[in-house]
Design brief:
Blueprint (H helix, E strand, L loop, with lengths): L19 H11 L1 H12 L1 H4 L17 H13 L12 H14 L9 H24 L13 H14 L9 H12 L6 H26 L1
Helix pairs in contact: 1-6, 2-4, 2-6
């Protein structure tokens, strides 16, 4: 019995997430809640008087601010800040925000406000769609491809990470991507859609052969 050859599915490879700006957004998808808190804390400072347009948000602050602490933590996680987590909107913090803004394609003015937050959220959703597509292709995710990095998506990432032998934290980072690509290269991980297609083809072939044999016998 000959099984018809099947074409591998067209998918968005997770290797596209290797680029630092995109990896940043992948992590940002998981940190979305923190980002929102940071935006609220920074933009609504002083009864909402601060705004990204005027640049008052990034004005020199010489005292520790909880919202700035969260911003620094987020940027540290994303690789755009290496300074102290002290809650001070210092030159180093401003520089980190500028670098992040450049990656997001918005004006790099060092001010973290609504425009930057919106760009971060938009990019995060786009990359989350890519991640969900990958997870679906390899049989780890059966939910909707909606760009929402919710519990189902995070659990699927954890399951993948467990199989890959990396830390199962639900975050798509450099270690996960490298292990994923290696598993694809050495054949450890295969696309579930390819297996399904091959099985379907084999079943169809078998059915056709049985039908032909039956007709011949009659």
């Amino acid at each position: 019995m000959t099984t018809a050859a099947t074409q591998p599915p067209t998918i968005v490879r997770m290797s596209r997430l290797r680029d630092r700006p995109v990896l940043l957004i992948a992590a940002a998808a998981v940190l979305g809640v923190i980002v929102v808190l940071v935006v609220v804390g920074l933009v609504n400072r002083d009864n909402g008087s601060a705004s990204e347009t005027t640049g008052t948000v990034a004005a020199a602050i010489d005292v520790s601010d909880p919202a700035v602490v969260e911003l620094q933590q987020v940027m540290t996680r994303l690789g755009y800040y290496t300074g102290p987590i002290d809650g001070v909107y210092s030159d180093a913090t401003t520089a980190g925000v500028k670098e992040m803004q450049t990656a997001l394609g918005v004006e790099a003015d060092g001010v973290y406000g609504p425009t930057t937050a919106a760009a971060l959220e938009g990019k995060a959703k786009s990359v989350t769609v890519q991640i969900q597509t990958e997870l679906t292709t390899y049989g780890y995710y059966t939910g909707p491809i909606d760009g929402d990095y919710g519990t189902a998506t995070k659990d699927a990432v954890k399951a993948l990470q467990t199989d890959l032998g990396v830390t199962a934290d639900g975050l798509v980072g450099a270690q996960t991507i490298a292990a994923f690509e290696q598993a694809i290269a050495d054949g450890t991980l295969t696309a579930a859609t390819t297996t399904t297609a091959a099985t379907t083809t084999e079943t169809t072939t078998t059915t056709a052969a049985t039908t032909t044999e039956s007709t011949t016998t009659k």
